[in-house]
Amino acid sequence: MAASAAAPPWLHDADLAAQKHEEAVAVAVEKCADDTKGQTCYICLDDDAEEGLVRGCACRGAAGFVHVSCLAEQAKILVAEAEENNLGRKAWQERWARWHTCRLCEQGYHGVVACALGWACWKTYVGRPETDIARCLAMGQLGNGLTEVGDHEEALSVQEAELAMMRRVGVPEEKLLIELGNLAITYYRLGKIEGALRMRRDVYSGNLKFNGEQHEETLRAANNYAVSLNGLERFEEAKSLLRRTMPVARRVLGTSDELTLMMKWNHAEALYRNPAAALDDLREAVTTHEDAGRIARRVMGCANPLTMAFEDALQQSRAALRARESPPPEHVPERA
Fold this sequence. Notes:
- By secondary structure, the protein is mainly alpha-helical.
- The protein has a domain at 20-142.
- It contains 13 helices and no strands.
- Helix 5 runs antiparallel to helix 6 (152-168) and helix 12 (279-300) packs antiparallel against helix 13 (305-325).
- The termini are far apart.
């Protein structure tokens, strides 16, 4: 792995973190302006606040419009109550989820809203000690938010700093696997596909060792490993891996879970992108994309990035099938 770059100053400076947060909120509000016009924040019920509203989950209709500051304050209060009252790990995790998941539709925030919340989360906990769990998770939340808006270089600096910090404080190996997996995603998106593949192979084998094949983190690692295999056009390996793990995901997570849908998507990609694919493989890819797309629209809405990605993939798999079913006519030389 390449040597880590110096950590950006806002990873240690609370004032700079607050400034970056304000900038991210402004971007999110502007991006959501057309959708939120004339709406009211469902938390504070104030339709005349200076901040402006956002919506970046799977809520539809009149639901889900909110101020980033209201989301952040709600999450902050809930986590603080869990800490002060020693409510236990499960309750703490459920409350922490408010930093990344909508409590109305129970789907994750995406895009500019996820980025703004990532900065809000980091601004909230940046002053805590390195060993504090909330600070560690907030750094991960920030890295995920930067990834959501395609700022992969910044995300890489956050994730490398987080991994170094986790190693300094002696985080167990099985916990390091999550951050290594996040780092591999960023490597892949920066075009470092071979490096990402090596990390993802290690993350998958590590999760099998520590968590077993039915754990959600193991299934997530298997899907990410398959993404890298597809990226390197090792389609048969990706197909074999996903055919072992998709039935487990359906049984453990359900057919409508986002991870299950992503595994189906990647399996379909391994089918239709393979130059050696049989005609039945291409038909299966189209059927898979159609089925997964219907579920994504129902569960996450038409505006969700994953739903839109399924639509794009469906068009590509259909094009591959049409090309195989209707090959171009053979060239006939013109008469002199």
